[in-house]
Design goal:
single chain; 195 residues; alpha+beta; Aspartate Aminotransferase, domain 1; 2 domains; three-stranded antiparallel beta sheet; 7 helices; 34% helix; globular
C-alpha cells in the first residue's frame, strides 16, 4: 500500500517546507526517511478526519451526541482558561484557538499561529496543545498528571488523544492553558523559526 507524503511541519524544522502534497512512490511501512521536505504520512485509510463546518456551533451540531458532549466539555475548559487575545474559530477542519493575524502577521504559512485545537477523529478526539509541545517542562507536568491518574497518556508530539473525558487531567490542562500569555506564545513560536 502506498502512503501519502505531506510537508514536514516547518516550525519543527525551522524552515519553509514545500507547499505540496504528493503520492509517495514508496510503500507505506514507515521505513523511509523524509525526502525533499516531505515525509510519508500514515496509511491513507487513517488520515485525519476534518470538518467542513464554517462555525464552531455548526461543527458541534453535526457531531454524534457523545462526541458533542466531550468536545463541548473540553471546549468549555479551554475557553474558561485561555488568556485574552486568542480567537476561537474553525480552521484546519477543527476547532482552533489561534493568534489573530492582526497581532502576528508574520507566520511561516500566512495562517494564524495555532495555540490549541480540538478535533473529532475516526477513533478518538484529539486536543492539540502547542505550548506543551514547545515546552518540555509543561509536557513533564502533563505526564506527571497522567501518572497520578494511574493512566498511560495517549499522546503524539502536540496532541492528546482520548475517548472519554475521564481520561483527561482537565485541571492540569486548564492550568497549562491559563499560563500561556499570547505575547510569550508568539515569542516562543518566533524563536523556533529563527533557529
Amino acid at each position: 500500500m502506498l502512503g501519502r507524503c505531506v510537508p514536514i511541519n516547518p516550525l519543527i524544522r525551522g524552515k519553509q517546507a514545500p507547499a505540496k502534497v504528493s503520492d509517495c512512490a514508496l510503500p507505506f511501512d514507515g521505513s523511509h526517511e523524509p525526502v525533499d521536505g516531505l515525509k510519508c504520512e500514515s496509511n491513507p485509510a487513517d488520515l485525519m478526519v476534518t470538518s467542513d463546518a464554517e462555525s464552531v456551533e455548526e461543527h458541534l451540531v453535526g457531531l454524534p451526541d457523545d462526541r458533542r458532549e466531550m468536545l463541548s466539555a473540553v471546549r468549555d475548559m479551554v475557553n474558561g482558561s485561555i488568556p485574552e487575545g486568542y480567537q476561537e474559530r474553525m480552521n484546519w477542519g477543527m476547532v482552533v484557538w489561534e493568534v489573530p493575524l492582526e497581532v502576528e502577521p508574520d507566520t511561516y504559512n500566512g495562517e494564524p499561529l495555532m495555540f490549541a485545537g480540538l478535533a473529532s477523529q475516526k477513533r478518538h478526539i484529539s486536543l492539540y496543545m502547542m505550548p506543551v509541545y514547545q515546552d518540555p517542562s509543561k509536557s513533564e507536568r502533563l505526564l506527571v498528571a497522567y501518572e497520578k491518574m494511574g493512566r498511560k497518556p495517549n499522546m503524539g508530539k502536540s496532541c492528546i488523544r482520548f475517548t472519554k473525558l475521564e481520561h483527561l487531567p482537565m485541571d492540569v490542562l486548564s492550568e497549562l492553558i491559563s499560563e500561556c500569555d499570547m505575547e510569550l506564545f508568539v515569542e516562543s513560536c518566533n524563536s523556533v523559526r529563527k533557529k
